[in-house]
Amino acid sequence: MSLLNNTEKKYNTVIIIDYGSQYSKLIARRIRECNVYSEIITPDESYSNLANKNIGGIILSGGPAGINEPGSPKIPNWLYKFDVPILGICYGLQAIIHDQGGSVSSSQHSEYGNSKIKIKNSKEKLFKGCDNNFNVWMSHGDSVTSMPEGYDLIASTDSCKYAAVKSGNIYGIQFHPEVVHTENGSKILDNFVKEICKIYPEWTSEHFITTTIEKIRKQVNDNKVLCAISGGVDSSVTAALINKSIESNLICLFVNNGLLRKNEHKDVVRKFKEANIDVQYVDATEQFISNLKNITDPEEKRKIIGNTFISVFESFTKKNDDIKFLAQGTLYPDVIESATNDSPNASKIKTHHNVGGLPEDMNFELVEPLRNLFKDEVRGIGRELGLPDFLVDRQPFPGPGLGIRIMGEITFPKLELLREADWILMDEIKKNNLYEDLWQSFAVLLNTQTVGVMGDHRTYEYTIAIRAVKSEDAMTADWAKLPYDLLDSISSRITNEVNGINRVVYDITSKPPGTIEWE
User: Fold this and answer.
1) 517 is catalytic
2) ∠ at Cα 275 (274, 277), nearest 5°?
3) Which is the catalytic residue, given 178, 183, 420, 461?
4) Annotated catalytic, 90?
5) Contact 469, 396 (CB under 8 A)
6) Is 165 helix (H, G, I), strand (E, B) or coil?
7) Has this prediction a pTM greater than 0.70?
8) Is residue 335 part of a domain?
9) Which of 27, 185, 451, 470 has minimal Cβ neighbours within 10 Å of its Cβ?
10) Residues of the chain with pLDDT under 50
11) First-to-last C-alpha distance (Å) of the chain
């Protein structure tokens, strides 16, 4: 791979205007899969902030608003100044059509799910290499009803006449190519960036590592950085990147918040030592559980956990008062689901403890080198950095830990029940060689007790829910079809080996409509 030549200006960036779609980050991910750099901005971004971004193409995302609604986000006044190809997706298409003098109206029937698209011209660059008929994923209530002058119809479905249109280097599609449900979706985006935008594919893990190390050095200078280590791939890659950037000024800290899985605090510290990474350890179990007493609301749990982490970090730095920065393994999905200022048009799904859950008055500046990446990208960077498989391939484990897998109040007895049940689940998953096939697999302790019978005695005990999903990016997920024999073994072991559990259920909800975690 050839790195960018700083003396040669290359229009190699695709910017994505985020109108509040939960899929905006997924569009960015798909573009990066084409080895092309993408960056997400808001519709109110100023032209002056974009002038030096080497923009080679622009994509307008979908969004929850209706283009005819008062106050709905519109086309930025600088959109056409760059004279580069433009692709509007769903709401993005409607915004372009509305701006150019066409009409958009509420559909008689909203369209959600699969639909068969028919290509009008097989030679159209956007659909190069695609069949003339294929399934696409629709999700819209409004539709284009008339096109502006100069626009051509290039694809339709039975229920959506203007499924794809173009005018010169401006394209619009009503469907979502970024989701896996759309056949040829990745091909369409690849065609847009390579065939239409003519961007050379050179965005790679190697390029990210090189540029990120330089950014960290400029941000941190000679100051010390405290990196919170969890044992997961995100914090591990964060630590490795910072270590390459500033070496001796990195201090790694593992905090036992009492919300970890069975034996996790011992395993994590041991594995980091095996990887020759020095980690300091603090047991703050009593502090976390005390702060969470009588708390049942999921959002409040997350914020308390985030605040308590910061409190522990600040107490630690009193002995190291020259620590100025706090490093975190924050990822793109964390940011979009928390609906921070990075995505003001999005609906908040839940607050992630390391994004919206942090206190405003903390005494650290944040270093978040992975903030614009997805999990699979992080794994690739971890491998490029030479991290061991046990760190790179570990299933995601949330920062709030078991705190968001216990419904209702968190207590020490409930934590022990969940720890034992979760350990049995993971033991069975690994015995059946399914661990790496699943995005996540875990147990949830419900705040529900049910009647059961064991031997000749009536029981009234807690219920465990098993959750196992497959996903590529955590933005969408399908429930895993685990073998019945495996489910039978998991259920039998939990109800027999964990005193206090008399019922096991299996969660068969995909994302959407559910989220992967229960809280």
Assistant:
1) no
2) 105
3) 178
4) yes
5) no
6) strand
7) no
8) yes
9) 451
10) 1-8, 339-357
11) 42
In a domain, 299, yes or no: yes
Q: Are 229 and 142 found together in one domain?
A: no
Q: What is the pLDDT of residue 362?
A: 64
Which CATH number do you get for residue 59? 3.40.50.880
519 domain residue, yes or no: no
Asked if 230 and 154 sit in the same domain, the reply is no
Q: Which of 342, 369, 392 is the last residue of a domain?
A: 392
Whether 101 and 182 map to the same domain: the answer is: yes
Q: Which residue out of 34, 90, 227, 252 is catalytically annotated?
A: 90
> What is the C-alpha separation between 349 and 368, in angstroms, rounded?
21
CA-to-CA separations, 342 to 19, 27, 515, in angstroms, rounded: 11, 15, 21
Instruction: Name the domain count of the chain.
Output: 3
Print the domain residue range for 308: 205-392
Token couple for 39: 């960056």
Does 44 share its domain with 163? yes
Residue written as token pair 């969890």:
230
In a domain, 416, yes or no: yes
What pLDDT score does 310 carry?
86
Q: Is 176 annotated as catalytic?
A: yes
Whether residues 56 and 146 fall in one domain: yes
Distances (CA, A) of 92 to 18, 61, 170: 9, 5, 11
Contact 501, 461 (CB under 8 A): yes
The whole-angstrom separation of Cα 306 and Cα 351 is: 10
Q: Which residues pair with 460 in a beta bridge?
A: 451
Asked if 301 and 404 count as a contact pair (C-beta separation under 8 A), the reply is: yes
| pLDDT confidence of residue 110 | 65
Among residues 140, 176, 265, 352, the one annotated as catalytic is: 176
Out of 196, 223, 239, a domain closes at: 196
Do 326 and 384 reside in the same domain of the chain?
Answer: yes
Residue type, 473: D
Q: What is the DSSP letter of 232?
A: S
Q: Is the dihedral of CA 73, 78, 80, 82 positive or negative?
A: negative
